[in-house]
Amino acid sequence: MHGRLITVEGVEGVGKSSVLPVIEKYLAAQGVEVLLTREPGGTELGEQLRDVLLNTEQHILPDAELLLMFAARAQHIKKVIRPALANGQWVLCDRFTDSSFAYQGGGRQLGFQRVDVIAKWVLGDLEPDLTLLLDASRETSLERTKKRRQLDRIETEGDEFFERVRTAFLERAQLGPARVKVIDANPDFDTVANAVCLQLAECCSRWLTETAEP
Ligand code: TMP
Asked: Separation of 194 CA from ligand 1 center, angstroms?
């Protein structure tokens, strides 16, 4: 039996970290074995690259940023994601390739085409089964990030950068509507959590039936 890859995406402040435990709990209640992981990160090398990528002291050019994100991803896919999927585990990943399209392709203005070349190289035939894209207005996201500790290198970018990132995420959803489900993350936590569970229920019942069929 092959597992499923579920990714959670969105601009900082949309509430990813609050929603991830809800998803984990929902899947566990369906009797699914879940592996929660994140990008950049998820392996020893990936976590070291994450430190470099988010360190405010680093000056990283857009191409270098893109390549470092994918270096971490290559390690993550081979060492963690593919083995877990092959083992029948469901992988729940906090950010994945759509973030590279949104932040490097959109935010840094490298364009989708360039990201696509490296994505094809690193991912091969791997694609998330479901991507939950949490989407909120810039005002809502800003209000939520204000409460945070110190900002990391990417979080220090300005409004225009984050508007481009948000637009690029929504473009990704338009390009793959069967895979990417946009969740309105503007309302309160319970409303967002309910919307996420509804979306999961729809996909899970289909997948679990497929798995059960001889
Ligand atoms: P977060 O996981 O706390 O949101 O922080 C990760 C940061 O890295 C966030 O600002 C988004 C950024 N990022 C990219 O720019 N490109 C990528 O491919 C990934 C996975 C993350």
From this structure: 25
CA-nearest residue, atom 18 of ligand 1: 100
Ligand 1: atom nearest CA of 152 is 10
Distance (Å, rounded) from C-alpha 14 to C-alpha 27?
21
Q: Which residue's CA is the closest to the ligand 1 atom numbered 19?
A: 99
Spatial neighbors of 100 by CB under 8 A, at least 6 apart, are 66, 69, 70, 73, 115, 119
pLDDT in tens, 163-175: 999 999 999 999 9
Note the pTM of the prediction, 2 decimals: 0.97
Nearest to 7 by CA among 111, 106, 85, 83: 85
Cα gap 74→178, rounded to integer Å: 25
| Domains along the chain with CATH numbers | 5-212 (3.40.50.300)
